[in-house]
Amino acid sequence: MARISIAPMVDITDRHFRYFCRLLTKKAILYTEMITSSAIIYGDRNKILDFDPVEKPIALQIAGYDKKEMAEAVKIAEDWDYDEINVNLGCPSDRVSGNQMGATLMAYPELVAEIIYAMKRETNKPITVKHRIGIDGTNVLPKDLPKVVLDKYEDLERFVKIIAETGVNHFIIHARIAILEGLSPKENREVPPLRYDEVYRIKKNFPHLFIEINGGIKTINSIKDHLRHVDGVMLGRVAYENPFLLSEVDRFYDNGKVNNVSRREIIEELINYVKKLGEDDKRGYHAIKNTIGLFHNKRGSRIWRQLISPPWEAGYGAKEILERALDLLPEDVLDERPRII
After folding, report:
1. I need a surface site. Which of 81, 189, 218, 239 has the fewest CB within 10 A?
2. d(CA 265, CA 281)
3. Residues within the annotated binding site?
4. Active-site annotation holds for 91
5. Belongs to which family (predicted)?
């Protein structure tokens, strides 16, 4: 069976956005934002780890480099009953890779293996890894090492082979290298070329592994194309930029049915959701801010963006904004449903 997932995205895939996504897709697996092991150990655990049961299936993504901390974080998270624990080995940002986490660790697959073994001792949940096809940069450990370049297919294959020996059998591969010096995280999603063939080759050479592809995938047809070569597809920014696309992805599961929902019904459900949050305008704004792409490329998209974006008129909270949207937006767009093929 194919699998579709929504990538972990910092400042986007919080619990509010995940609730919104679950209105659109009933079957795709959702991910938390990347959370560091130290944040779980020392931070506000309820704030960091709580989720609504409606969000399931849901995966927790953890970043870290210390195997004891990673194991402790996993042990703590057991009380929250996530469906999967994912290790971040792909984030290229200075804040992450410069602190010996994320994509930096691709240079040290043996260390990653030790981390995974320690994590597996604390959970029976599936442990998966998300990584790039390679790295190019200097944010590696120890700090005095020269520039590391791991951008050949053979480097990727060696990495996968070592990690697979831990018992991990699910790899989510972003089909770009991570350039760890000189590019921002946004540029790292756009500048390094996509090399899908290398991900396909991993699946061919490791047929027993579940290989999920990520990077630049924005249409239903492209999902179909990738699923001819790999087992799953992870959608990234398109889930934020054009979220109504998610209403079509359930077709890739066993029963082949899309989630037959309209934008009007989604907004009505969001009204009920923000009512439960209470009258705090700040909470209300955070609950709906990442829905801004709901009318992507449709009549009314500008109205929707203007309504959602602050500052809001005096006396308006999230509930009133959403109710006003139902009055102002074109009825045919509000009542549009996903294509049923």
Report:
1. 81
2. 23
3. 8-10, 61, 130, 174, 214-216, 236-237
4. yes
5. Belongs to the dus family. Belongs to the Dus family. DusA subfamily.
